[in-house]
Protein 1
Amino acid sequence: MPKTILQKVWERHEVVAETADTPAILFIDLHLVHEVTSPQAFAELAARGLGVRRRDLTLATMDHSTPTRTDQVFGGAPITIAAAANQVRELEKNCTRFGVELLNLQHADRGIVHVIGPELGLTQPGKTVVCGDSHTSTHGAMGALAFGIGTTEVGHVLATQCLLQRRPKTFAINVSGALRHGVTAKDLILAIIGRIGIAGGTGHVLEYRGEAIRALDMEARMTVCNMSIEAGARAGMIAPDETTYAYLQGRPRAPRGEAWERALADWKSLPTDPGASFDREVDFDASAIEPMITYGTHPGMVMPISGAVPERHGDAIYARALAYMGVEAGAPLKDKPVNVVFVGSCTNGRLSDLRDAARVLRGRHIASGVRMLIVPGSQQVKSAAEAEGLHRIFIDAGADWRESGCSMCIGMNGDTVARGEYSVSTSNRNFEGRQGAGARTLLASPLTAAACAVRGRVTDPRDLI
Amino acid sequence: MEPIAIIRSRTVVLPATNIDTDQIIPARFLTTTTRAGLGKHLFTDWRYAADGSERPEFALNAPAARGAQILVAGRNFGCGSSREHAPWALLDYGVRAVISTEIADIFRNNALKNGLLPVLVDEPTSAWLLEHPGIELTIDVAACTLSLPDGRKVGFPLEAFARYCLLNGIDELGYLLSHRTDIEAYERRA
C-alpha cells in the first residue's frame, strides 16, 4: 500500500496507536522552547514535582519578547518593557532549574526558533518537531512533521516527550511550472492561501509537491511551509531530496560520518510513494503567479500587486476589514503611500531574504518619511549577512539594521507600527493590531517590501530589478 | 480541571468570521508568566477605544451580555497563533463554551485542555444563533447536544476521549504519565 510522507513519519512515532476511543501517543524527537509559551508549562512541572524527561531532545531560545536594539542585546541597556525582561529572566531560571540547554540573549547561535532549528541542523527529515508557536510548520520544509502546540502541550512534551494526537488528513498542493522573474516563494504561498482560504487546510497536513517546489532552495521551502498555518493547516511538509541533504550536511548538529550515511539512507525512504492517495488535492501553476500583496486583515485577503481590491457587495464583515485598512474595493493598491517597511521574521528573515532586499536597495535610498527595519532571523544570519556586506547596503539605504528576533512581526518587544500607519511587512500575519494597536499591515515578499521602501509607495518589485 | 457536564447560559454573539487569536488577546499581553488574570485583556482592541473607554457598540459591552458564558462566533474562530492565552483569557472572563461552524485546530486543542468547550454546529444552526443573540442555551456534554429555547436539540461532534476528560475533569498529562512503560519501550526500540 503506497504511503504519504506524513503516514510514514506518523507511524514511526506511534508509542501507542490511536483507537476509536483514544488518540495516539506520539513521540516527539525535537522540542523547541521559547520564553512566551513556556513559563506556565515549567510552573506546572514544578507544581507536580516533575522533571524534563528528555533534555537531550529539548532546546530553548528567546525570540518573541527580546529587544532587537544592539545596546539592549549586548550593551547592557535595560529591556524597555519590564514584563518582557521578566519573561526573559524566567526562561533563564527555568532552564537552569530543569537542566535545559538555552541559547540566551547574547549567544551567537540565538535567533528566531524556526530559523535556528534548521540552521543548526537539528531539524531533520522524518523527525517530529514541536514548539509552542504556530509557525513550527516551518520545519516541515526539511521533511519533518512539525507543528505548533499550546502551553499545556509544552508541559506534556517536557514531562513525557509525548503528545496525544489524532492523525491529520492529507492535502496535496501540486505546483507545476516555474516562478517568473521577481516572483518568490512568499508570493507562491500567499497565492496558495488566497485560493484555498485561511481555513482551507484545517484538520490537514499540507504536502507541497511538484516541479516548482523541487526547484526551491531550502530557505524558500521554509517560507512556504511557514505559512501553512495561515491556511489553517497545523503542518506543511516537503519531501527531502538532494537539496535538503546538501543543506544539512556539515551543519553543527546534523549527523556526521557513519551516522550521516545511515541517516541519509533512512531519509531517502521518506518521500511519498508513487500512487499514494491524499484526502484532498489542489493544482497550481507557478508560472501564472505574480508578486502578491495583502489588502485586508487576514492572509487570505491577498491579490496580485498590479490588481485591484476585490469587490464583495453586501458583505459587512468584508467592508469592516477594508475600513480598518483604509482601502477601497475596486481600487488598486499600487502607489498607496506606506509609512513603515519591515524585512524579517520566521517567514522571511533568512540570508536569501536579506539578499533579495539588498538586490533592490543596493545603490538606492529609502524614500523620505519611510522607516525601514531589517531584522535578521538569527545571529548566524546576521553574521553571514555582514560577512558579505549586506548591512552596509541597508545602512547606506537608510534602513535600521538590528539584532535578531521576532521584532515587528508581533510587536511585543518594543518594535511596533503606530496606529493608522501602513506597514509593508515580510512577516506572516496582517491581523488587526498584529504589529501594534491600529497598525495596518500589507504582507509581501522581501523584494516587494524593499521596492516599497525605495518608492515610499506600494511598488511592483519588477519595476526596480 | 473541574469536571464539566452542563453549561446553561445566555449567549453573546460576535458575528465576525476568522476571529484570530491576536483579536482574542493581542501579543502585547503575552509577556505574563502566569495563567491568571487575562480576562481583562480579552478582545482589548475591540472592547476599548484608544482612550481606554468601553466601545458601547461592541457586543461584550452590552449590559445584557454581562455574565454570558456561551460565545457564538462566525466561521473559523481562533485562527492564527498557538497562544494558549486565548482560551485562558476567555475562561478568565467567564466564557465556558464557543459555538461556531469552524474552529481552528490549535485553538480547539488548547480550549479542550482547559475545559473551554468548542461546539461545532452546521450553517443553519449557526445562522440562527447569530441572528438571536442573548437567548438561553443548554449544552449537555455527555449527550453532545445543544438545546435551543424552543426545545429543539442539535448534536455536536466531540471526540470520545475529549468528552471523557471533560466529564471527569481529567487532565491529559496524568493519562500520558500513566503510559510511562510504553514510552520507555518506544525509547528502547527507537
Protein 2
Amino acid sequence: MNQHLSESEFSAYLLGAASSATLQHLRTCEPCRQEMENFGGALTAFNQASLLYSREHAAARPMNSQAMAAHAPIRTRRAGLLADPATRWGIGVAAAAVLTFAVALPVFLHRSVPSPSMAHNFTVTAPSTAVVSPVPDPDTIQEDNQMMAAIETEISQPDISPLESFTTFHTPVTGHHEEQQTLKKKL
Amino acid sequence: MPETAIYATMVSVRELGLSVPEQASTELDDIDSLVRLYQARVLRYVMFSINDQDLAETITQDCFLKAYRGRANFRGDCSVSTWLISIASNLVRDAVRTQKFRFWRSFRQNAADVTELAGILPSAGSSPLAAMLAHEQARHVQQALTGLSPNQRAVFLMRFSEEMELQEIAAAMDMKVNTVKTHLHRAVIAIREQLRAEKGRAR
C-alpha cells in the first residue's frame, strides 16, 4: 500500500475492525504510525485528566449515600403470577374489558329506544319569539276595564240568603203560596 | 424515559437467563462502596456528555439512586460500570430532551474548566515538555468534544473513555451497532480534524 491510511481505515482500526492490509501498512509506514500514536496519546491524556478532574470534583462535593439508601426502597422483581409478562398482559386485558363493560352498560341502557309518551314529552319546541310589550295597547285596556266593571257589579250585589232559593219556588196552588209568604215573613 | 429505558435493559438482561454474580450482588448492596468506586467515572461521563457541572452532579446522584433501587434486577451480563454508564446515558438523554433550551443556553456557562482540566494531569515521570504536550492534547480533545452532536459525544466517551464494547454501547443508547459505528466514525474524524487544526495553529 503506497498511500497513507484513509479516515475510514483509521477509524476502523480504532474500532478494532482493521483489515490485515491496514495492520501491515501501520507496521511499515512511519507517518501513519505516528499519527495513530498521537491520537491515542491525546485520548489517553484526556482520559487521565478528565478522570482526575471528576475525582477532585466528587471529593469536593461528596454524595450523601446513606441518605440516598434511606430513601431508596429496593425495587424487587415481581413474584408469583405477575412474574410472567404474558399473564400480566392477560390480566390487563381482562381488567380493561370489565371496565369497558361497566361503562358501556349504563350508557347502552340510557340510550335505549324511548316510548311514544316519552318521545312526546321530549318533543322539542322552538322557543317563542313573541315579545310582550310593557305598555298595553288601548284595546287591552278597554277589555280590562270592562272585566273590572263586571267584577265590581257582581260583588256589589247584596248577599243572597241561603234560603233565597225557597222564595223563588212557584207553585200553582194558591194556598201554598200564602203559607210560603207567611213563612218568609217569619224568617 | 429513564425509568423505562432502565427496565428495558433489565428485561433484556433477565431474558438472557444469567445469574447475578455473588460479587456484583454484594457490591450493589453496599451503596457506599458503589459510590466510592464509580462516582468519578459516572460523573466524568455525564459531565463531558452534557458539559454542565451542576446538572452532571444531579444526574450522577440520580443514576446511583436508580441503580441502588433497581439492584435486584441486575443480572450481571455486563460489568457494574457499564450498567451504571447505561443508566447515566438514559438520564443524560432525558435531561437533554426535556431541558433542551436551557441545556444549550448553559452549555458553556457551567462547562468544565478546560484550563483546569489540562493543568490537572500528573507530570511525574515525564519531562516538562511531554507534560505540557499532554496538557494541550487533553484540552484539545475536550474542546473538540463540545463540537460533536450529543449522540456522537456519548458514543465516543463510552468507547474511548469507558472502553465499552460496541454491542454494549448499542444497548445503552438503544441503537443498532452500525449506527454506533457511524457515530463513532464521524466523531473520530471530527476530533482528528480539530487536533490537526490545533496543531497547525501551534506551529
